[in-house]
Amino acid sequence: MGKPKVITAQTLYQDGKKLLVPPSWLESLVSGGKPLDRHADGAELLGQSADRYRNDGNLEAAAKTYEEASEAYEVQAQDKTPAAEHMVSAMNIYRQISKPDAVRCAQKAVKLAKEGWTFTRRNKLFETQAELYQQVGDLEGAKNAYSAAAEGYKLDNSIALSSKPANFAAELAARVAQTPDGYQDARDRFLEIAKSNMTQANLRFGVKGILLKAGICSLCFGDVITAQNDIQRFKAMERDFAQSRECRLLENLLEPLEEKDPVKWMALFDAYKDECMTVTDWHETMFKRQQAVLQEAENDFS
């Protein structure tokens, strides 16, 4: 009596690949199987092979095989859900071993997940994609992915869930801005978030901080009149903003902006930072960027 066949990841893979090859005329006649059934069985075996590779700790082979399974499911079914699921599995493994490959799989998964997935699940995939873009230094791609997540949550009437990715997208818009138009886009994004958050009781407390970010973007225009007008606009939007330390900071910053005084500019920020616990790396980056602009202007003037 022969030994039973040992089923390994490799044998599952080989069996799956064989089924993906169209059968010969004679094979079709003998088996009576339908081509689509054969292809579906092949895709399923590739998925099982990928599972086995993953369990064995062979992450690279697992990720590649999940990709192949996804591609097999994609071409043989109207429902792209299995293809999306397997591409996400590949993405999750690549996150551990190759960020660029994870980004590539995330891009494919997003396209496949347009149908058959809930809004929430698809939006979380956009957020994961954005995180991956940031990890490989593609801030523009991250901004667009966060924007897609925020818009998706809005379409699902989930304003509270939309606020976080929208804020990340606005911050990234400011980080990548190099012209007044870029800063205007970032400012307008923050203003849109502030307006939405004002309609939510649990988010309203953070509106002052959002308006501060909008004001920082406005100050980065380098135009005092524009900044003054925007501060007045913020006061009209939020009645408590005029008495806030965020508003005082923006108004105090108008003077060093007009005088091109980088020392006073940073001194005001440092004083605010000492009394406020909500200063982040984004605030630091934007203030130091504008400090450099003011320093250059001061040097040119002198």
Automatic annotation (TrEMBL):
UniProt keyword terms in alphabetical order: Protein transport, Transport
Cited SUPFAM superfamilies: TPR-like (SSF48452)
Is Transport there in the keyword field?
yes
Q: Which GO terms describe its cellular component?
A: SNARE complex; vacuolar membrane
GO BP, sorted A to Z: intracellular protein transport; SNARE complex disassembly
InterPro entries assigned: NSF_attach, TPR-like_helical_dom_sf
GO MF annotation terms? soluble NSF attachment protein activity; syntaxin binding
Belongs to which family?
Belongs to the SNAP family.
| Family matches, as PANTHER family | ALPHA-SOLUBLE NSF ATTACHMENT PROTEIN, SOLUBLE NSF ATTACHMENT PROTEIN SNAP
Q: What is this protein called?
A: TPR-like protein
